[in-house]
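Co-fold these.
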Amino acid sequence: MTDATAASAAAASWESKVEKLGVGFPLRRFRLRDMSDDELLACSQAMSIGLSLEEMQAARDHFLGRDGEDDPTDVELEALGQAWSEHCCYKSSKPVLKANVYGIAEDKIAAREDAGIVEFDDEHYYAVGLESHNHPSAIEPYGGAATGVGGILRDVVCMGAQPVALVDPLFFGPLDMKNADLPPGVKHPRFLLDGVISGIRDYGNRVGIPTVAGGITFHEGYTGNCLVNVGCIGVVRKDELVHSKAGGVGDVFVYLGNPTGRDGIHGVAFASEELSEESEDASRSAVQVGDAILKEPLMHVTLEVIREGLTTGCKDFGGGGLSCVAGELAYDAGYGCHIELEKIPTKVPGMAPWEIWVSESQERMMVTAKAENVERILQIAAKWDVPAVVCGTVIEEKVNHVTFHDETVLRLDLEFSTGGPVYDRPCAVRTVEPEPTPELPVPEDMEEVLRWMLRHSSVMSKEWVVRQYDHEVRANTVLKPFQGALGSEGPGDAAVLKPLDASDRGLALCSDVNPYLTERDPYWGSASAVDETVRNLAAVGARLSSLCDNLNFGNPQKPERMWELYEATRGLGDVARALDVPFSSGNVSLYNETPTRPIPPTPTVMGVGILSHYKHATTLDLKAAGNRLYLLGETGDEFGGSLYLRYHDAEGGSVPRTDAKVLADSAEAVVSAIEAGTVRAAHDLSEGGLAVALAEMCFASGGLGAHVHADALHEDPVVALFSESNTRWLLEVPEDRAADFEAAMAPVADRLRHVGSVTDDGRVRIRTGETYAVDADAASLREEWANALPRLMGVEA
Amino acid sequence: MNKSDIKWAVLRIEGTNSEDESAQVMREIGVQSEIVHLKQFTGHDVADHERRNLADYDGLWIAGGFSAGDYIRAGAILAARVKSRLGNDLSEFVEAGKPVLGICNGFQILVETGLLPNLEPGQAYTQAPTAALHLNDCGHYECRPSLLRHVNRGNCKFTTGIPHDEVRTVISSHAEGKFILADDRDYERLVDQDQVVFTYTDPDGSDDPAYPWSPNGAAHAIAGVCNPEGTVFGMMPHPERVFYRRNHPDWTRTGLDAGLGFDVGDGRAVFESIVDYQVKRL
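Predicted complex below.
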């Protein structure tokens, strides 16, 4: 037989090695030991559990060697498929993460469970998480995005923390793409964007947690596989922190929330494979259905039972469902669990035990508690009309033991099922050498280049989207996503919250990654993402406290993709290590790939910063005519992946580099100068360089202008105006504070230049040599910037 | 009445989501405030120690949010629950002259229950709603600062601390905020009885501002109204979100003291006014 015919024979014959057990409900036993290799693989594929041949063999051998039945039930096999998925056990990424980002400044992390826990002040921690919901959003953008928000909220709540903000970095294909250019089975980016933001809006607004930061990035590489990353941060009193593990033997499991349904079955397996033309039909059931108005009371119930001291542990149902939650709560405490599956409330009658066990239905939480506290927990749940049932107990033996109407349907050794496989996957190294910027015609009209940049999807205002999110609820938001004079706001560098009534400390949030840099050079592109995070936070007056990384990459079984993952994490880790700042939370999303292409490497970085006092919060808009403008940082000929090269439709150049020592010193100087009260406005330089940053500072002021001499930055006007070199800020300083400002900036004085001043004429003027490269009305520049997205979405006023 | 003896209840059910900051600003003014679930008033599914009686409170605030999801008309579900479970208690509460405040979703609920605009002096509420808060003209939820002109001539007990005709910045944050009267001929009487409290305006001071300064397209640019007695008040924008100057969208331009005191925001006067009224009159 040829391989192909053997495989097709196996596709039919494996089923004869599965027996239905006469137990009064659907339960099957898989005689793996009788299956050939082809049959093992066919079985895994037909059941959509995503296990490779080697993994199926390991499963077979384990069951043969255990006490009890020699073959697994469907519940056991499904549970293994889930536990060993890329999504749950990080089998491809773990060695890379270990080498590059684990173990950095670990002493600053108080705990790392469902969310990362870091000190906010003497009495409080913040709890932070960042996750992806990419594949579900590509298939069903509204539900996929909504449940992404729901999932990250639960991660924070289950630590006992009150969520205070959401952050949404989103990535789509070009909005102006022609329908004819869409690959088969792919939805138009406009449809996906509209669905995703509606999902975030309708869910995030209803649960009452403000969405304060994020970003929308457009790149052809996301056309077939959009990315929806969602971050959440909460605060918790140190003595109310709850761990994701049970207290002791005899504790009972209390299931809270939504009944379990058939939605979200095989979600983690779906997240761990490439998308294809058939994904829409084949994987629709893997997308969960969110319910904000069950989530909102579920958060209240969870926090109330925790605050009343009724629980010993708490964990949310995420990818992996009951199977992962029950086992991990028990196993992380050194115990096992007995779950009575028939007690779990279901959305529909007749669900098979395996479906209940692996379903990833939303809006569910599990707590463990001493038996005497159960009655009060059930009462609090009843007040909020949240379903709640006792469904099991913590046992001494380290096994998951699951019964359904007294019949054992699963008995899995927890050490075996949680100790999934780890692969050291090969990398195909691509050498990235610094390249000179290509020779390009010098634009005759620099102002036209600036206008093009302001209209470009990378820079254009995302206000039409952002205003659909409630960024004010909880009344803690001190700096909003859009900042400046009423009605002419510009894009803020980071949001600032004052999360505690009793503390004046501010919490700053931002997220960054530029795929045009990372696709060209994953190492320096990723280092640049950290650099941009640091400068965004410093611009609002915040010191970086911790980073979160959401690693969105292609298929790790392809060595080119694996190399991108390795290089990107190396770039993130090298800068973070030099800054001595930890990664408090992270998530890996692989297989973001379609038959046409992978996504560009996308290590989304979310930064959490702390302001010593909220009053120091600083915005980008210019404040008063006559003030000085300073530029901090060196401007170099670094155009790799830049907006300027995209203007020319050209390739080449070197991706901007960063020196972590200089970055740390510069950021500290900026924050110190802000704290000394010498800085009225601050803005970092990123895409579009000085020209774009200065235009934004002017138009956000609602009437002021600026006069800047660019010659001091670089002899080449194009470099001076449009270079995207890292570690740079524009700072506005009152004339009478200039001496104090310069004193605060002394450690980086060699990189500081007084480049111009604020004017009252509302014009953006950049002088190079004897002429003005740009001399434009700021308000008209704002029009270009503000109208671009409504025009692309067809919703122009 | 002593300020510190005054007790406010902030009502919530599932989906109410501005209750924390609402209760907090009342405490900041110096009165007691407590977040109370509707079931604590009705006694269902709660422990004895959690039961509450509306009559024990001096003020009721129905906070913002998306009560019960607002999956049908905004506020309709909570309004129906309040009317059926708490109707008599609420009538007595209003008839006793105790203040009721509805912000955003709370305003929608007060309109749904007939507590607002309610043109008949002396009755707590109308049997059927006489106005609606319709979907914004832009067709979806939006969060943005609005400029509100205080047009009330002294009837509304919640705004006595704000000079007539003064413009204040308050945050709009809603999908359904377009105020429409069932019969627009009622508008004249609403004005005559001094029941219009805030209208939307723009930086030029227009009486008929265009989007986005009118965030929803409300008739007569109405942002907030009160009952004939001025003790029941509802508005779409959120004064509790500008209680402090630091929450103003442009505070980094004006400084934390913009003329009202250090870190005092434009919304604070609403809460000070009503508590002042309670201290003097109750």
